[in-house]
Amino acid sequence: MPYPLRYMTVVGNLSALVADGADVGDVPDAMPITGKVEFRLITSDDYVLCPDATGGPTIKYVAPIIANIDVDGDISWQGLKSVKLFTPDAHTNPTSAAYNVRFTGLKYGTTPVTIEGFNFDAVPDATINLTSVARVPGTKPSPVTVGPRGRGVDSVRLVGNTVVFSDDSGTDYPAVPLGSLLDSVTIRQAIAYSVALSS
Questions:
Q1: If we measure between CA atoms, which residue out of 14, 8, 197, 188 comes closest to residue 107?
Q2: Among 48, 51, 52, 72, residue whose Cα is nearest residue 60
Q3: What is the mean pLDDT of residues 20-49?
Q4: Which 3-state string (H, E, C) describes the chain?
Q5: Top-tier CATH class for 6-133
Q6: What are the pLDDT digits (tens) for 176-193?
Q7: In the β-sheet with 176-177, what is the strand arrangement from edge to edge?
Q8: Phi, psi dihedrals of residue 135, rounded to the nearest 5°
Q9: How far apart are CA 47 and CA 93, in angstroms?
Q10: How many CB atoms are closer than 10 A to CB 25?
Q11: What's the CA gap between 76 and 68, in Å, rounded?
C-alpha cells in the first residue's frame, strides 16, 4: 500500500532587545532580526529511501532549504510565516532523523547579530516553534549517544523460487519471489554463492 511522504511545519521569530528609543516608557525596545535560516536534514548520505512512496519506490535526496527571516523577524517561505520540512517515518529508511538549523546574515537594522545553530528532531505532522527546540544560551550542546544495536541480516536462504532473509534473532522475514530472475543462470549462481557465504 503506498504512503504519502510526511512533513512538519516550522515557525519562529527572532528579535533584538535594544536601548529604549523615543517612545512611551523606558524599557528596552524589541527590533526584528532579519536574515536567512538554513534547514539541513541530518542523515549519513543526504538521502532517504522511500520504498512505499505514492507513485512507487524512490530514493529522495533531501536538499537543504534556506528560508528568509522577514522584516517582522518571522521565518518566511513563499509568503507564509512558516516553512514545511520533510520528515522520515515508519515507511522510510531511515525512519527518523533530525534537522540542523544554521542562521546567516542576521542583523537588526544595520547591526550584525550571531545566533548559534542547533539540531532538533524531525516530527511528522507536527508544528515546531524554533524557540521550543533551540539550545538554551550558555549551555553545552547535547551530545549524540549511540543507541541500542539494531537487527541485521544473519542469513539468506534460497527456498524454491524465493529468497528468505533471517535476522540475528532468528526471525524469518517474508519470502521475496525471484520471478523471472530465476531464468538467469548468473543470478542463480550469485544467490547460491551468497547463501554459501552466509552458511
A1: 14
A2: 48
A3: 88
A4: CCECCEEEEEECECEEEECCCCCCCCCCEEEECEEEEEEEEECCCCEEEECCECCCCEEEECCCEEEEECCCCEEEECCECCEEEEECCCCCECCCCEEEEEEEEEEECCEECCCCCEEEECCCCCEEEHHHHCCCCCCCCCCCCCCCCCCCEEEEEEECCEEEEEECCCCECCCEECHHHHHCHHHHHHHHHHHHHHC
A5: mainly beta
A6: 777 644 555 555 665 565
A7: 153-159, 162-167, 176-177
A8: -65, 135
A9: 9
A10: 7
A11: 5
Q: Which three cell numbers stand for residue 8?
A: 512538519
pLDDT in tens, 111-156: 999 999 999 999 999 999 999 998 887 776 665 544 566 666 777 7
| Identity at 90, one-letter amino acid code | A
Enumerate the CATH 2.60.40 domain ranges in the chain, comma separated. 6-133
Tell me the whole-structure pTM to 2 decimals.
Answer: 0.67
The string of pLDDT tens digits covering residues 39-80 is: 999 987 778 999 999 888 999 999 999 999 999 999 999 999
The amino acid present at 91, given as its one-letter code, is: H
